[in-house]
């Protein structure tokens, strides 16, 4: 499968996790990895399965590197029905009111433009003991196995 791992980050955690996901899937799949800062939502490729990793900053907002993507996405007409994506959120439950809202808002904005969300959004809590990759790698492997079974 052709997979585009895209990350939105402010201090690098989402970039590291995206890299871990790329490394785990390389070999079985054709995987590219990029910062959302370099991506125009209008150019998303229907041949790719998109795996998005996104943290949360400010008042439950997307992080700095995802902001231009989000702004362009919000200005886009709902015509992303060719885009399939799964999304994983990074956050911190110390921010109880806005825990992992960046990934939630990004998923909502994509779905509002008819992109198809595959699987459920999982999150990592920076306050918890667990490593993000220990949650994200089984999550993405299960999603890809389901997609391959469906073909
Ligand atoms: C100034 C600041 C604001 C944050 N705001 C939130 C927030 O509103 N909700 C949340 O769940 N996490 C929040 N976080 C936690 C980050 O999302 C979390 O540490 C994440 O792992 C950072 O990933 P990144 O390095 O990829 O940006 C905040 C962190 C900082 C430093």
UniProtKB/TrEMBL annotation:
InterPro entries registered for this protein in UniProt: Flavdoxin-like, Flavodoxin, Flavodoxin/NO_synth, Flavoprotein-like_sf
Organism of derivation: Neorhizobium alkalisoli
* Keyword Flavoprotein (UniProt): yes
* Matching Pfam families: Flavodoxin_1 (PF00258)
Family of the protein in this entry: Belongs to the flavodoxin family.
Stretches assigned to the Flavodoxin-like domain: 3-144
Keywords assigned by UniProt?
A: Electron transport, Flavoprotein, FMN, Transport
Note the PANTHER family from the entry.
Answer: FLAVODOXIN 1 (PTHR42809:SF1), FLAVODOXIN 2 (PTHR42809)
Enumerate the SUPFAM superfamilies for this protein.
Answer: Flavoproteins (SSF52218)
Q: Which cofactor does this sequence's record say it needs? A: FMN
A Gene Ontology molecular function term for this protein is: FMN binding
Give coiled-coil spans as residue ranges. Answer: none
Entry protein name: MioC protein
Q: Is Ribonucleoprotein found in the keyword set?
A: no
Q: Where does the source fall among the domains of life? A: Bacteria
Xref: Gene3D superfamilies: 3.40.50.360
């Amino acid at each position: 499968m052709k997979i585009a791992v895209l990350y939105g980050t402010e201090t690098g955690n989402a970039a590291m996790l995206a890299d871990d996901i790329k490394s785990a899937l390389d070999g079985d799949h054709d995987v590219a990895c990029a910062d959302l800062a370099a991506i125009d939502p209008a150019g998303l490729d229907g041949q790719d399965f998109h795996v998005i990793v996104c943290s949360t900053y400010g008042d439950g907002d997307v992080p700095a590197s995802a902001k231009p993507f989000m702004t362009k996405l919000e200005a886009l007409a709902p015509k992303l029905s060719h885009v399939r994506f799964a999304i994983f959120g990074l956050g911190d439950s110390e921010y109880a009111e806005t825990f992992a809202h960046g990934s939630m808002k990004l998923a909502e904005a994509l779905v509002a433009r008819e992109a198809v969300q595959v699987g459920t959004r999982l999150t990592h809590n920076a306050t918890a003991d667990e490593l993000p990759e220990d949650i994200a790698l089984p999550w993405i492997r299960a999603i890809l196995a389901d997609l391959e079974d469906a073909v």
